[in-house]
Amino acid sequence: MAHPHKSEQPQAYESDTAQLSDRLAFVDKFPSAARITRLSMGVSFTALTIGALLGIVQALHRTNVFRGVISSADYYSVLTGHGVLLALFFTIFFLTGIFTWGTSRSLGRELPSPRFSLVWFLLMLSGAVMTATAIFGGLVGQIPFSADVLYTFYAPLQAHPLFYAGLAAWLVGTWLAGADWIRAYYHWRQDNPGERIPLQMFMILTTMLMWYIATLGVAVEVVFFLLPLSLGLIESVDPLLTRTLFWFFGHPVVYFWLMPAYFAWYTVLPKLSGGRLFSDPLARVVFILFLILSTPVGFHHQYADPGVPEGFKFIAMTNTMFLLLPSFLTAFTVVASMEYGARQRGGTGYLGWLKALPWGNPAFAGCALAGIMFAAGGFSGIINAGMNINSLIHNTLWVPGHFHLTVGTASALTMMAISYWLYPQITGKRLQFYGIAQVQPYVWFIGMGLMSNAMHRAGLAGVPRRTAEPQYQQFDFMPVLGSMLEMRLQIAIGGSLLTLGAVMFVLVMAGTWLAERGRGRLRVDSHLPEPISGPSDSPRVLDNVRLWFVIAVVLVVIAYGFPIYSMVADGALNPAAPPFPV
Amino acid sequence: MHVHRFERLWLVAALAMIVLFIGTVTYGAVGAGYGMVDDTGGQVDPTDATASENFREPGVYNGSEPGHYDVYIEAKQFLFVPGTSDPVRVPANSTVTFHVTSTDVVHGFEVVGTNINTMAVPGQVATVTVEFDEPDEYGLVCNEYCGSGHHTMAGSLHVVPAAQFNQTEVN
């Protein structure tokens, strides 16, 4: 069961590179890029470990299964830590790792300056450490820090300045990382005029351009409003304006979590299935759509906000619905590529081909199970996006039920699965505890199935999210389907399985990290076969990244220009709300 | 550029579905008359909401026509006023407009089991108009994190038979 795809790989694309890469791993060809990838992944997995342990504390506390670890007031420090460590640090340090690998691999060269790469990594790391210090200070009485503001840090709730300063430093680090990859691209372009942009590099470019647009909102919010407020330089802020700036960033960041998963599904998963990508041009179209549509949708997180005209909510809703398109296209291409792979491996029948897929290969199984969960998360997301039906589930447990399927499985499980394939290549070490790795994606899948379905149903009954004790004296929740007790138990059991899944993953990674180099074959084949339909038969305008960037900016101006102008016109700090706690 | 026939079909079907979804929301707004929370509630001073004509002393008021009521609710750490210490009382067979604001941090205002669900943002007044046909009792819950006592922030809303509703309860 260890690596069935090896022996059965069809002759057609058993190229020289495939045989060569068995002996020569990525780390041997590009030691500097491999080092940055390793460092990024190390921080990412550390954040995952801490965040997952906080997760089980919450799952047991909320459901009243066990409340012995923290008080209900401290629940919110734990929740802030869980959100920030997992949504920002686990995901985005993984992104900087895999994008560094992808840039180097697809351009066939090292990043321009190892020192510059180290600078952005260290800046991101020190920012993350500052922010985490501020959050965990809230759990220790003697330390005068706290940042119990959750992942969304809505003003006028206020955190210690260290929290905001850390976020700002971390954010600048991500900008420099993007600059590093773009610079590598320009060097490659000088040597290869007229060539199509390699697919992985194309994905990295569009994702980073989206990130530059989106992070503008949160950068302005933190640097001009929240950091000065927490330092006492200004006395008040306009809560609606700062919320709007947050969500300007808060939706596209979702795609920043998801794009590394899409990147893997398009460029690595087809090969893991035993085949190759169906269509390179459509992959480009999908990433262009994400660049264009990711940002002008933020108001769909503010459907329930006063002070935002209905028309702008409608524009955001329309853009959001069209954002379904790239995900639907991805579903098609990824499933088609998997089917192609399965048939290459001898699979037959309408659905019988599914049996021919390498379900015992953890890298494949994790990606495929993540994709299935993402389909479910996509459909619950359509409910969120529906402007009127959203009122039924806004800020209920439905919402975390939804995003634990998207970022918590589509992104997280894919990142873990791809690590099983990528980590040996960037360390030159054979993956350890292979048996644990083989089981791990299934543990995650079952845990999330239990937790997420119960969260969705509890949300339909009106149970709020983000609360330490969703049990009230004044009234009882009336579930539409199932009972409150059963949902609580599913959440507690599911949350425990998820933590177990995270620990299993980290064990495999730590074991591999500590293993000796050069013992045994790597058990992975790093060769990525060419797509069935290559870039050459697609219009060159797809590669005109500047054009797509300009269109994206224009759409953002249409969606946000007037609302932000009207919020700022009466004074950027009005209506003036003073901070809490003072 | 070659696009497989099935993929073209899939693309067209996905686009049709997207248009359908947008259509249902448009119908909800135009046909069924579902009004979103928007900017019609106006702004107030977060530190002194009642000083503005957009907000009144919290409580129940007679509306612009018979059978219509306005309910002004102040959300603050960790209370709804009215709602938490005394239930909000409105008669059945009435049209009620809730005017909700916050005087400290961001809160949520959710009537459990209904689609009355809005944010209470300092400086802004959220207005939601609903019809109550039958007498019933509902829970109120703050569904946005608002500080260390957030989980205690709840209340109740009683829709009472019209005969039991006393005009002296109206401000």
Characteristic key phrases:
heterodimer, A: 582 residues, mainly alpha, 67% helix, disordered N terminus, B: 171 residues, alpha+beta, Immunoglobulin-like, 2 domains, five-stranded mixed beta sheet, 1 helix, 34% strand, NosZ/Cyto_c_oxidase_sub2 (chain B), copper ion binding (chain B), CcO_II-like_C (chain B)
What is the element layout, followed by pairings?
The complex is a heterodimer of chains A (582) and B (171).
Chain A: H1 4-8, H2 16-23, H3 26-29, H4 31-62, H5 75-107, H6 114-137, H7 161-191, H8 199-231, H9 239-250, H10 252-267, H11 269-272, H12 280-293, H13 310-322, H14 324-344, H15 362-385, H16 390-393, H17 398-427, H18 434-460, H19 484-514, H20 545-569
Helix pairs in contact in A: 4-5, 4-6, 4-17, 4-19, 5-6, 5-7, 5-8, 5-10, 5-17, 6-7, 7-8, 8-9, 8-10, 8-12, 8-20, 9-20, 10-17, 12-14, 12-20, 15-17, 15-18, 17-18, 17-19, 18-19
Chain B: H1 5-30, E1 59-62, E2 68-76, E3 79-81, E4 88-91, E5 94-102, E6 107-111, E7 117-120, E8 126-132, E9 136-141, E10 154-160
Parallel strand pairs in B: 2-5, 4-10
Antiparallel strand pairs in B: 1-2, 2-3, 5-8, 6-7, 6-9, 9-10
